[in-house]
Design a protein that fits this description.
Distance between the termini: 29 Å
CATH architecture of the largest domain: 2-Layer Sandwich
Helix content: 55-70%
Radius of gyration: 30 Å
CATH topology of the largest domain: Alpha-Beta Plaits
Length: about 220
């Protein structure tokens, strides 16, 4: 009985291995392609702004950095991007104007990525989209409107654009090589496990003792 269980499980594992690989490949290639584009900006305090006690002006302050991250992701900036790029219409969001604008902002905020660089005044502003051109356009638009907002009164920050966002030809998601590579490793492991079980089942079949002859 034990040898039959080994053989059955071995055959099942070997049969399941290519099925798993084909399923992962089909799902991976059916997923929408997500593109990412980012711009980098250098944000500095204005000359007239008081520095926190004990903080050198040439060293980035973490609270100041996080403030800029919050401003970049705020409704004040987001709503201006929505209006400038006409995202409510472009994304075909229906409903009352206020509700549609808020829904568009939530979509926009979920795709926006704002990340301060460590030990630096540089902030990365990126955007995810199924359209590579849109990802670059919205990253640049967010940066431009943020710069326009904080360089005036009462902030008077200095914002320098280090890199503009450019459309990318390769998507960032899904990571096809990683997904297929992982599925291939799992499939090979299952197939090898199935082969081992079949070998064990056959070897136990050969080494099993014949039943004793009945006494006369």
């Amino acid at each position: 009985m034990k040898k039959q269980v080994f053989l059955i499980f071995g055959i099942v594992l070997i049969a399941f291995a290519p099925l798993l690989l084909l399923t992962v490949a089909a799902v991976t290639f059916s997923l929408p392609r997500i593109y990412y584009a980012n711009t980098r900006i250098l944000v500095e305090r204005g000359q007239s702004e008081a520095q926190p006690r004990g903080v050198r002006p040439d060293i980035p302050h973490p609270i100041f950095q996080m403030d800029q991250v919050e401003i970049l992701g705020s409704r004040k900036i987001g709503y201006r991007v929505l209006e400038k790029e006409q995202l409510v219409t472009k994304w075909a969001i229906s409903g009352p104007e206020s509700a549609a604008k808020e829904q568009a902002f939530q979509v926009f905020r979920g795709r926006l990525n704002v990340q301060p660089a460590r030990n630096s005044r540089i902030i990365e502003v990126g955007f995810y989209s199924t359209d590579p051109v849109e990802s670059a356009d919205l990253a640049n638009a967010t940066t431009a409107l943020y710069r326009e907002t904080v360089t005036g009164e009462p902030h008077r920050y200095r914002v320098s654009i280090i890199d503009l966002a450019r459309p990318r030809t390769a998507p960032c998601k899904p990571n096809v090589p990683v997904y297929l590579g992982f599925a291939l490793v799992v499939a090979v492991t299952l197939a090898l496990g199935g082969i081992v079980l079949i070998v064990l089942g056959r070897s136990s079949q050969k080494t099993s003792k014949p039943p004793p002859l009945p006494r006369v």
